[in-house]
């Protein structure tokens, strides 16, 4: 057996092991249903967490697996939100088709932007993504006749899901809907990263200059994952518009892009579950700290972030894996 055959067999075995569901994973997802029973008054917050987790998951695909750093991914989140809102405002409130259209639109813009993204690296990449985000924000602000500008958009109530599940004031349907979309996107992401394509992405992240030497078209890999990530971010934005019936310029803001990076740092990049854990920790901490100290709650978030970076550089999940004796 040649070295090449042995390497391929080893890679296949590793991917097969990675694809198996572990017991903690099987337990984790039913736990996300507990707010329906134990914390019904916090369902609106749970809905925000599910949406933020989906957005963080989209960023993790490019940051944690492909090594594409970004500070402007809220552009795609906002595009998805405005697309779904405008569909609803113009009489089309069917949630699932609106969700898919919004995701496809954000994905198309992401595909166009990817031709620029794959040509720069490091600090230049940060500046490009940041600039694209600011450009989109100012464009939305200037097109007030379409986006509502600083006043935002009021979206007519979304139609019932499958013409049966109506969006209620307590947030039962909204959270169930967002959680279902998050789970489906997680399954797709999990299958993606635990494939040969996912291995190629890890290779790009570790050393993009060596990838062409083994025959990998790494730029096309980056373009594909960036497009998928943009579409997923658009889905998250569309969920926000559909479940809250409002869209403001804040969906395109730098703060939203920065917050999602903080979530990934807290949970751990390149792990998928890190996006969800980070979103839970960040939004629950923000909710509780804002209630205790409305003016200075960001101080405590900053302190939490410093503790995690100093003592858990690979995030909370990375720290737990190290305690369990597992290697990345």
UniProtKB/TrEMBL annotation:
Keyword Transmembrane: yes
Leader peptide range in chain numbering: none
Keywords: Cell membrane, Membrane, Transmembrane, Transmembrane helix
UniProt topology in membrane: Multi-pass membrane protein
Ranges annotated as spanning the membrane: 21-42, 62-87, 99-118, 124-148, 169-189, 224-249, 261-285, 297-320
UniProt subcellular location: Cell membrane
Main location (coarse class): membrane
CDD domains hit by this protein: TM_PBP1_LivM_like
Keyword Ubl conjugation in record: no
PANTHER family xrefs: ABC TRANSPORTER ATP-BINDING PROTEIN (PTHR30482:SF17), HIGH-AFFINITY BRANCHED-CHAIN AMINO ACID TRANSPORT SYSTEM PERMEASE (PTHR30482)
UniProt protein name: Branched-chain amino acid ABC transporter permease
Lineage: Bacteria, Pseudomonadati, Pseudomonadota, Alphaproteobacteria, Hyphomicrobiales
């Amino acid at each position: 057996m040649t070295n090449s055959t042995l390497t391929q067999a080893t890679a296949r075995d590793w991917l097969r092991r990675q694809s198996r569901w572990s017991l903690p994973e099987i337990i984790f997802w039913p736990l996300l249903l507990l707010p329906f029973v134990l914390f019904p008054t916090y369902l609106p917050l749970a809905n925000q967490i599910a949406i933020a987790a989906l957005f963080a998951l989209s960023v993790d695909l490019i940051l944690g697996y492909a090594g594409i750093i970004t500070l402007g991914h809220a552009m795609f989140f906002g595009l998805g939100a405005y697309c779904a809102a405008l569909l609803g405002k113009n009489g089309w409130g069917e949630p699932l088709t609106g969700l898919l259209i919004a995701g496809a639109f954000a994905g198309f813009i992401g595909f166009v932007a990817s031709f620029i993204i794959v040509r720069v690296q490091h600090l230049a990449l940060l500046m490009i993504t940041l600039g694209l985000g600011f450009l989109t924000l100012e464009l939305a602000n200037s097109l007030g006749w379409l986006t509502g500008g600083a006043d935002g958009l009021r979206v007519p109530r979304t139609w019932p899901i499958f013409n049966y599940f109506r969006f209620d004031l307590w947030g039962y349907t909204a959270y169930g809907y967002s959680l279902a979309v998050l789970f489906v996107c997680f399954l797709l992401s999990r299958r993606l990263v635990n494939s040969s394509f996912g291995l190629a992405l890890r290779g790009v992240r570790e050393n993009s200059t060596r990838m062409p030497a083994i025959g990998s078209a790494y730029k096309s890999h980056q373009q594909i994952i960036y497009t998928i990530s943009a579409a997923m971010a658009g889905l998250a934005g569309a969920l926000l518009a559909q479940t809250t019936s409002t869209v403001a310029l804040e969906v395109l803001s730098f703060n939203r892009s920065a917050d999602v990076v903080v979530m990934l740092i807290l949970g751990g990049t390149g792990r998928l579950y890190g996006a969800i854990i980070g979103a839970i920790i960040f939004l629950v901490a923000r909710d509780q700290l804002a209630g205790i100290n409305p003016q200075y709650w960001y101080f405590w978030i900053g302190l939490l972030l410093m503790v995690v970076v100093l003592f858990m550089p690979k995030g909370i999940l990375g720290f737990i894996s190290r305690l369990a004796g597992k290697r990345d």
